[in-house]
Amino acid sequence: MRYALQGAFFPIETSASRLGLVKQETSVTDLLSGGSVKYRAARKKEFMRIAKRSVALVVPVLSLAAGLAVLPGDGDAAPVQRRCTAGTFDGKRLLVLSDATMPASAFMDGRLEPGGRGAGGARDALTVIDLPLRVGVPGLEGPPPVSGETEVDNSVVGPPYGMAVSPDGRLVYVLRTRGNPPPGVTEVGNVFTGLPSEAVVSVVDIADARRPKLIQKIRVGRHAHTLSLSPDGTLLAINTDEPGRNIVLHRVERNGRVGAEKLAAAGAPSVRRVGRIEWHPSGRYLALGIPFADEIRFFEVGNSGRTLKPWGAPVRVGKFPDEGVFTDDGRFYLSTDLQWGDDVPGHFHDPPPGTITAVAFDASRGRHRVTGRAKTDISPEGIAVSPDGRRVVTGNLTHSWRPWNDERLTPRSSIDLLDLDPGSGRLSARQRLAVDGVLTEGITFDASGDHVALSVFDRFDPRRRRGAVKFFDLSGGPDCSRLSPTHAELEVPPGPHSLLVVR
Fold first, then answer.
1. CB 410 within 8 A of CB 429
2. Are strands 171-176 and 163-165 parallel, antiparallel or unpaired?
3. Chunked mean pLDDT (size 10), the chain, 503 residues
4. In what order do the strands lie in the sheet with 467-476?
């Protein structure tokens, strides 16, 4: 197997056998071939609409029969000459979580693909990729990346924060928020309520990237959303919509397995839905979003996880704060305000553009305060902050996830790049970059903070049914502070929705 970076080819070793690589041109005729008559008709109508708004539909594409591959980008803005970064995505491992059984459009129409998308009926998977990975240095050959994958239950239903890694980087904790449909079920009225709600945490040993190994599965409740592991690796926090169990803490044993439940508590007097749960870097506090109340609540964890009490008053942020993240130094919490709600059709089908709110976290007295706010594109479900705390990126869904025949479908999603002032906590929007892909919500910086990876759940090319991870670097502009696409991407199992870099 080979991968291409801006036209230069290099070998890449994976756990799969070597496969041939064929270069070909993608035309509208090719894109509309295959599938049912109804499907082709819907795609033809959509491509005619896109053609009126696109500069070109014919782009060079490299296709592979199967397996992991690094391919050139297929429609993003042209790369600029690299001056500021080494072209290496840094860290120890890149983890990719894929839900292969639910198409993005099921959020709208409830139609599932229980057999799995793609060749061979792909299943839910965790993909492990060794880092560093060269993503933007044409003509230089690096060491072959090592990768492997294993089947792990997971779901795209819920925020893209279904993974956590142990402090030593050896174990990954994966949350399944919804189960796969029962045999014979191909459609549900609502994916949030129509799929099995039992939440399961799987523990995977990734010491050998080529052979990730499932070592434990444990039930942790129902209607779960996200999980977060304490910095010392001893407590696993999970949030759910169950009354009185919005915050659930499990002990983690010395061998890394998830142990008994230590605490279950309500996050607020009345909670319709929880957002993301996130440990503060100190390990003393938890943050919990309460979307329908438009607030973030902070809690102090005491007595080795046996007690939980509010830390300061709830902080009013923007509308529907479903996700959020602390800066590495713990001074700020950044919430993604999706602008969803009861006044939006279907709660989330057609919202206005989102916002990001910065909150100064007060670890000494609990006097938290809002310090900044900036606008983003529609539905910024994914958020990441650079290791130095100065840059923020969001993965924006836009309307890319709608059914093919929906007139409101947008042919691209996007990334927003924002600046965070480490002194004042002010936020300012710097850049928006269009991305060719569906439901791009998993997003992360690499260990250096100079590169960004973004998950592509699906494509607008019906022949390319596997997912992808696209890479960007901060190489643009006179001060090297604008994102540029590297035109490299990893092809992964269908439905990638969560990314995590092991530093």
1. no
2. antiparallel
3. 30 29 31 41 48 34 35 45 71 95 86 58 87 73 74 93 97 94 85 91 97 97 96 97 95 97 90 95 97 97 94 97 97 96 85 96 97 97 96 94 83 95 96 93 96 92 81 82 86 93 96
4. 69-71, 482-492, 467-476, 451-456, 443-445
Catalogue the E-assigned strands of 14-136: 21-25, 60-64, 69-71, 88-89, 93-98, 125-130, 133-134
Long-range contacts of 307-313 (CB under 8 A, 24+ apart): 307/263, 308/247, 308/249, 308/263, 308/265, 311/285, 311/366, 312/362, 312/365, 312/366, 312/367, 312/368, 313/366, 313/368
- Nearest of 162, 249, 156 to residue 201 by alpha carbon: 162
Distances (CA, A) of 434 to 21, 312, 373, 479: 28, 39, 22, 21
Which own/partner contact pairs does 347-352 have at CB distance under 8 Å and 24+ positions apart? 348/107, 348/379, 349/108, 350/399, 350/408, 351/378, 351/379, 352/378
Residue 205 sits at φ, ψ, to 5 deg, of -85, 120
Contact 47, 27 (CB under 8 A): no
Question: Among 191, 209, 72, which Cα is nearest to 132's?
Answer: 209
DSSP state of 281: T
Q: What are the residues whose beta carbons fall under 8 Å from the beta carbon of 189, sequence distance 6 or more?
A: 110
Give the closest residue to 57 by CA, choosing from 70, 67, 71, 43: 43
Single out the residue of 402, 379, 406 nearest to residue 458, CA to CA: 402
Q: Which residues pair with 369 in a beta bridge?
A: 360
Residue 481 and residue 87: Cα distance in Å, rounded?
15
d(CA 33, CA 20): 23
Contact predicate 92/146, CB 8 Å = no
pLDDT tens track for 104-144: 888 888 888 755 444 445 689 999 999 999 887 654 445 55
